[in-house]
Amino acid sequence: MPQGQPLTVPDDNLTTRQRRNRPLLMVHTGDGKGKSTAAFGMALRGWNQGFRIGVFQFVKSAKWRVGEQAVLERLGTLHDETGVGGPVQWHKMGSGWSWSRKSGSTEDHAGDALAGWTEIKRRLAEQTHDLYVLDEFTYPINWGWVDIDDVVTTLANRPGHQHVIITGRRAHPRLVEIADLVTEMTKVKHPMDAGQKGQRGIEW
């Protein structure tokens, strides 16, 4: 794609502007590092364009506050105070989801995952956000906690102009099939292979 130009122009009766501005379903998968980081980077871009950002973390512990969360929440506060950028909401399954105020537990994980997906479906129907980051959402799908048929139908038929990014290893083939953009992160080398633990500013 030289200079951002597509290699082909489909016969879909859409104008260049209409085709360019279609909402995207994006999947970041693979065993390599950087899936969530890339998604949060796109959220930063969207915030700068005034997008309403919604982040939903499905696996990471509520006790783990990643650096991107702190940055995006501060940007959300900046928007609230000055109108710059867009509003930001960040939700974690491990804390029982912020809208439910119910603490989660190991036994509750499957139910919490389904509750999170149910809330996301509601927000998609109401067009609450412009950009959704469903972080590590491939795992509850693969574990059978969330029904893949429901996910595919909901995402394929979401109304309005809503971008969705899904991250996690081993993305379901049906998810890959309906996505507009799929990136597979491939690990070549990683410091942990040499016994080095994660460090500030790199892993969190």
From TrEMBL:
Region described as Disordered: spans on this chain: 1-20
Tagged with keyword Transferase: yes
A GO MF label: corrinoid adenosyltransferase activity
SUPFAM superfamilies, per the entry: P-loop containing nucleoside triphosphate hydrolases
Swiss-Prot/TrEMBL GO biological process terms: cobalamin biosynthetic process
Pfam families: CobA_CobO_BtuR (PF02572)
Keyword hit for Membrane: no
Stored InterPro entries: CblAdoTrfase_CobA, P-loop_NTPase
Keywords annotated in UniProt: Transferase
PANTHER family linked: CORRINOID ADENOSYLTRANSFERASE (PTHR46638:SF1)
Stored NCBIfam families: cobA, PRK05986.1
Name of the protein in its database record: Cob(I)yrinic acid a,c-diamide adenosyltransferase
Species the sequence originates in: Mycolicibacter sinensis (strain JDM601)
